[in-house]
């Protein structure tokens, strides 16, 4: 079984034919996590996502797997402990998607929290990870700090702490989690929106689903339902339950991306804005530097969120406060992206103080809502949600379904061992497949041993002109095949934004790879000339919408 764009009609038919044990509404990380957990216990699971997988908050995060050092200040020790445990688990189950990173926290004279108090926090952070951190924290004086980060502002610098956390490909963690759910038998569909409930004896028994691609409507029946629609929770709650009372306090978060050449950070830097209110990260990754985030109240449809000029000015201000010598300007920004945090209202006076803890709400009308929480803790949140959902089943079934297998690798072909082995034989494999070392390493780092499956299945299918392109076009064309056949990717925008980092990391947003990639999509999905034009326009429209701040 695979998550293939070409199997969509089969999945649609299966969705209409069966009565599922669990119907999961929403295909972000929460829905993917619940689906994998439940399917790996042996439950029959359906996942229905209104748009592309991970197109909501789950591709718009800071892309950090972290305990959240700042939650220590709010005394949220339980949250930090759980997140650090899950960080360790994610290193194990997704080594191709989650990578250790050092974070430097510089301290300047007059800082609200001084070196001593922060030092205690650092010890606590390492201790809460049960000392299973990639590396213990370090305390540096001002000179040592500037040796490590020469572009940092040295004026009034007292020193810094350096500690470990991790960065990830948030969108691809969702996809790999869903692929694993499919492996365990789940039926998973994107571009299908749940829009109407059907009750039997006062309990939710089915939902009407509208296919956003073909317009058809169908009914999916379930023995229990789980809503994992993040910032859409109040909207979906209202559409399913007439007396739904709003529970969300969504906030907007914006990030900017830069090239590593222009903003040469070696380690992530934790910056605190002048008003001492917010933390802004500068995060170097393989392919770019991400800076963010803002945190402001948001109202409206989460699908329409976008970056404003004020968000950009704020983030540029913080960068230039910490790195005045680098002279970062608006023209250095490659891309911006914005997302909506699905926070649950807890009565806090400010946005940034609202808790990142998750809430599970069990409605007696046969539906469980999971909302809030952090990406990092998705696996354990999903487990807790399924345990609660199981109360709606018989004792025998709860016993039968008591053992999730979510500590297994997300992708059995991408483990620490397979990654290491493939990387130790680069020359050999480059000869076998006639690839450059850069191409081979990129494929292996992204897919582990699945790189060989991709090469064996698709290399010979590349059109002649694309096969000889060594500028990256060949690599992204192979990725296009894989995205269509293994990740149900239907659109260029989904490919450039969520299956690959091209839109966020390439100065031309990946436009130079458009021809080879489009050729593969047209070939596999049978696109007409008109559809090809539509798809290109979709890319342009996205960039225009998200980057509209640059004309304001
Ligand atoms: C700016 C920002 C930075 C963050 N940084 C981090 C970080 O670095 N680390 C971390 O751990 N966490 C981070 N988070 C938090 C984390 O990203 C979110 O908690 C998480 O992604 C929420 O996932 P979700 O699946 O609940 O929601 P979403 O990803 O929003 O998924 C909900 C899905 O439901 C779908 N949907 C809506 N209505 C329907 C319907 N009617 N039918 C079917 N489907 C529907 C939507 O299309 C969407 O795909 C950050 C959040 C933000 C906003």
Key phrases:
alpha/beta; 10-stranded mixed sheet; globular; binds flavin-adenine dinucleotide; 20 helices
What helical percentage do the residues reach? 25-40%
Bound molecules: flavin-adenine dinucleotide
SS element count, helices = 20
Beta-strand proportion: 15-25%
Number of DSSP E strands = 20
What does the overall shape look like?
globular
Distance between the termini: 48 Å
Radius of gyration, in Å, reads: 23 Å
Average of per-residue pLDDT values: 93
Biggest sheet details: 10 strands, mixed
Structural class: alpha/beta
Point out poorly predicted stretches.
Answer: none
What is the topological layout?
Layout: H1 8-17, E1 19-20, E2 22-25, H2 29-41, E3 45-48, E4 64-65, H3 77-93, E5 98-108, H4 115-128, E6 138-141, H5 142-148, E7 157-168, H6 170-183, E8 187-189, E9 192-200, E10 203-211, E11 217-222, E12 225-227, H7 233-240, E13 251-258, E14 268-272, E15 279-284, E16 289-292, E17 296-297, H8 309-322, E18 335-341, E19 358-363, E20 367-372, H9 378-389, H10 395-400, H11 416-423, H12 426-433, H13 437-447, H14 450-458, H15 464-467, H16 473-487, H17 492-499, H18 502-505, H19 514-525, H20 529-546
Parallel strand pairs: 1-11, 2-3, 2-12, 3-8, 5-14, 12-20
Antiparallel strand pairs: 4-7, 5-7, 6-7, 9-10, 10-11, 13-16, 13-17, 13-18, 14-15, 15-16, 19-20
Residues 25-31, 48-51, 55-58, 60-64, 193-194, 228-232, 236, 253, 293, 339-342, 373-376 line the site of flavin-adenine dinucleotide.
